[in-house]
TrEMBL record:
Protein name: Ribonuclease D
Biological source species: Aeromicrobium marinum DSM 15272
Gene3D superfamilies linked to this entry: HRDC domain, Ribonuclease H-like superfamily/Ribonuclease H
GO molecular function, one term: nucleic acid binding
High-level lineage: Bacteria, Bacillati, Actinomycetota, Actinomycetes, Propionibacteriales
InterPro entries according to UniProt: 3'-5'_exonuclease_dom, Exo_C, HRDC-like_sf, HRDC_dom, HRDC_dom_sf, RNase_D-like, RNaseH-like_sf, RNaseH_sf
GO biological process: nucleobase-containing compound metabolic process
Matching Pfam families: DNA_pol_A_exo1 (PF01612), DNA_pol_A_exoN (PF18305), HRDC (PF00570)
Region ranges (Disordered): 1-28
């Protein structure tokens, strides 16, 4: 029976019109790749005023190194400059031209190491991505922030390009220049929101800590992160994976090529699980039918032979050795007291993060919380807990907020 009182259809809201694209306000500058052009850039930057917006482009999916293949910078009164660092021994002259001016970076930890390699080191900085996190914005990518604060769309279609390509195509250069086009304006808007939220001092402490950032801590036994390790069984097969991984890594570093282009992970695991006893068997494996992997057949063969000849005592363990606590998922059954402490600490941190409108990981490092719950100080107090947090890299504002609540959770 048809409905006697049909509900009228609600009008469909028309989709919001797309934001106008961000465009360059000045003509695209030429790439700075000569000593004379670099001297002109340094002079122009030194004459400018205010903070300096910087960015760097790498070739992470194509090269082994994380070096910068293009440096973009913009400053009021100076304009935008696109510097090719490859032809220069270093950019110390540009660093001198910037002097004590504040750097504006987006996701500073991505660019600071490669910029330091070429002699560029900030004395002060403002990280727009980190500012967005402290404001607890749902998305903090550069394109999202530009859309949110400036109402412009910023295309990111060349972010994964091979920036070691020479010459660089003009569309790529436009993309690179746009990455610093509005960083100064974006910085000012984020700064105003941080002040309004009472978080500017927190940001200042975090930015100060970033000045000494040199890169993420070196991971031990990186070979264990090979894709497909779930198919590897037994210590001897693990030794084969390790030997092949280290051989591939050495070749990739020598050729400055990303390791996966030398030998894909799938092929590496195939060789390890097959454990070929001779060159003919090795050649017949599917993963070595391509011309690229076959170029290094003798190296793969030597790696396999060496791994098969290892004595039992030298084989890698099934589980990765670590100096820290075990994964928290194992605590409930084996270490119930530590699990209870961790649950209380996490509840305290979650409540504080909600109260102060922060992501929990920006309020305090989860690693520090786990370490405290696993092995609290012999005498739990505000002083001892604060000392552990400080030694772990927590900033004063973080310690002020979480110190006492963590003491209560630990006892």
């Amino acid at each position: 029976m048809p409905d006697q009182n049909p509900v009228p259809d609600r009008p469909v809201e028309p989709p919001a019109p797309p934001s106008p694209p961000l465009t360059l306000r000045d003509p695209l500058p030429p790439v700075v790749d000569t000593a004379a052009a670099l001297a002109e850039t340094c002079a122009a930057v030194a004459r400018g005023s205010g903070p300096v917006a910087l960015d760097a482009e790498r070739a992470s999916g194509y090269r082994y190194s994380q070096r910068a293949y293009l440096v973009q910078l913009r400053r009021e009164g100076s304009g935008t400059h696109l510097v090719d660092p490859i032809g220069f021994g270093g950019l110390e002259d540009l660093d001198d031209a910037i002097g004590d001016a504040e750097w504006i970076l987006h996701a500073a930890t991505q660019d600071l190491p490669c910029l330091a390699e070429i002699g560029l080191r900030p004395r002060a900085l403002f990280d727009t991505e980190h500012a967005g996190r402290l404001l607890n914005l749902p998305r903090v990518g550069l394109a999202t922030l530009v859309e949110h604060f400036l109402g412009r769309s910023l295309a990111k279609e060349h972010s994964a390009a091979d920036w070691s390509t020479r010459p660089l195509p003009e569309p790529w250069l436009v993309y690179a220049a746009l990455d610093v086009e509005v960083l100064v304006e974006l910085r000012d808007l984020l700064d105003a929101e941080l002040r309004e939220a009472g978080k500017r001092e927190w940001a200042a402490q975090d930015f100060e800590a970033l000045l000494s950032f040199t890169g993420p801590p070196e991971k031990t036994e990186r070979w264990r992160r090979t894709s497909g390790m779930h198919r590897v069984r037994g210590r001897r097969t693990l030794a084969l994976v390790r030997a092949l991984w280290l051989t591939r890594d050495e070749i990739a570093e020598h050729r400055d090529t990303t390791p996966g282009r030398i030998l894909p992970d799938a092929a590496l695991v195939e060789i390890a699980t097959a454990a070929p006893q001779d060159m003919a068997t090795l050649k017949g494996l599917r993963g070595l039918r391509g011309q690229g992997p076959r170029r290094y057949l003798s190296q793969w063969h030597d790696a396999v032979e060496n791994a098969l000849a290892l004595p039992e005592a030298d084989l890698p363990t099934v589980g990765q050795r670590t100096d820290g606590p075990p994964p928290p998922r194992a605590w409930v059954d084996k270490f119930p007291e530590a699990a209870a402490r961790l649950a209380r600490c996490r509840d305290a941190v979650t409540g504080l993060a909600e109260e102060h409108d922060l992501p929990t990981e920006n309020l305090i490092s989860p690693h520090l919380v786990r370490a405290l719950a696993w092995e609290p100080p012999a005498e739990v107090s505000t002083a001892t807990v604060s000392s552990v947090l400080r030694d772990g890299g927590a900033r004063p504002w973080q310690i002020d907020l979480v110190g006492d609540p963590l003491v209560e959770a630990l006892v």
